[in-house]
Amino acid sequence: MSGMAAKRFLxxxxxxxxxxxxxxxxxxxxxxxxxxxxxxAGHPNGTAIVFFLLIAGMAxxxxxxxxxxxxxxxxxxxxxxxxxxxxxxxSAAGALDSLGxxxxxxxxxxxxxxxxxxxxxxxxxxxxxxxxxxxYVMKTSGKARQRMEALALAWHLPCxxxxxxxxxxxxxxxxxxxxLRGDGAARxxxxxxxxxxxxxxxxxxxxxxxxxxxxxxxxxxxxxxGIATLFLLAGPLSDLPFLKExxxxxxxxxxxxxxxxxxxxxxxxxxxxxxxxxxxxAFFPGTVHITDQGLSYxxxxxxxxxxxxxxxxSPIEIVGDRRILSLAGTFCxxxxxxxxxxxxxxxxxxxxxTSADQA
Length: 359
Prior knowledge:
By secondary structure, the protein is an alpha+beta fold. The protein has four domains: 6-74; 100-171, no CATH class; 194-215 and 285-354, PH-domain like (Roll), CATH 2.30.29; 219-283. It contains eight helices and 16 strands. It has helices at residues 12-40, 46-67, 141-155, 176-179, 219-234, 240-251, 255-283, 337-354, and strands spanning 6-9, 71-76, 81-86, 89-95, 102-113, 116-126, 136-138, 159-161, 198-202, 207-211, 287-291, 294-297, 300-302, 309-311, 317-319, 324-326. It has a five-stranded antiparallel sheet with strand order 9-10-11-12-13, covered by helices on one side. A four-stranded antiparallel sheet has the order 1-2-3-4, with no helix packed on it. Helix 1 runs antiparallel to helix 2 (46-67), helix 5 (219-234) packs antiparallel against helix 7 (255-283) and helix 6 (240-251) crosses helix 7.
C-alpha cells in the first residue's frame, strides 16, 4: 500500500475515544502546567505531588485516547486496497472494492436504566466485509445515509440503505425523481387505509398529503415538565426571600447572578419550545405539500433536485446530500410508514415529471 496515497479512517468507537481524549487534554493541560510549576519550584508537599500524579495521569489518558486508536482502516483509493490496523498491527487487508456495497443497517439494543430497560434504535454504516466494524453509528437513518454516501463517493463504492436498491457510486447524487422515473412499481399507487388518518388531496398543481392522525405520546413530555415545575415551585422556588435577594443581585450587576439568570432564561425558553412542539405534534401533525416548487412541510422546503430518498423510518425523513426534512413522529402510525413513503415517492416523481422547474 502506498504510504502517500493511504489515508486513515477511524471507525465510530475510536472516533468517540479520540473526542474523549481531546476533552481530557483540554480539561487537564492547564492544571497540569500549573501544578508542574509548583512541583518544579522545589520542595513540594505531598498533596501537590499527589495532585500532579493524578492530573498527569488524566492528561496521559487523554493523549492515549486521542493519538493511539485501537483500530482503524488504512484506505488507498488509488491502489484500491485497504488494511485493518488493530493495536498497531495490520490484522487484515484486501481489495477496497470488497468493502462494497456499504450498507446502512438498523440495530436495536436494550439499555438498562434506573427505572428499568429501554430499547435504543441505531442506524449503523458498515462494509460488506469486516461488517463487525461500525464505520458510523447515527440516531436517524437519514444522517446514516448521508455518512454512507459520503464514504461511497470518497472510496468509489456502491451503497445500499436499509435493504433498498444497491446504487453505484456514479448514481449517488441522482435525484429521486430521476432515479425512479422509469420504475413501474414505484409509479403504481398504493392505497392508504382510512384508519391511518392520512389522505391525499389534489392541488393545482400537485398534491397535499394531509395527516389527521392523533398520537398523545408527546404529551408525556409535557406531563413530565409539569411535574418538574410543580416540584420546583414547591421546593427551591418557594423560598421568596432568597429569590428577591437573588433578583436584586442580578439587577445590581452581580456577574454570577447575571450568568445564572441568563442560563435560567435559556432553560425556560428551551422548556417552552419543548412544550410547544410536543403539543403541536400531538394535535397538529401537519401537511406535506408537493407542488411544482418541490416538497414543503411546516415552512421548510426541498426542491426536487435536492431529494434523493424518502426513508420508511420513524420519523419519516426526506433526505438529500446536505439537508434532511423530518416529518413529525405523529404524522402516521408505524404500520402506515411503508405505504406512505411509497406514495410520497410516487407523488414526487409524478409532479417532478410535469414540473417546469426541476432544478
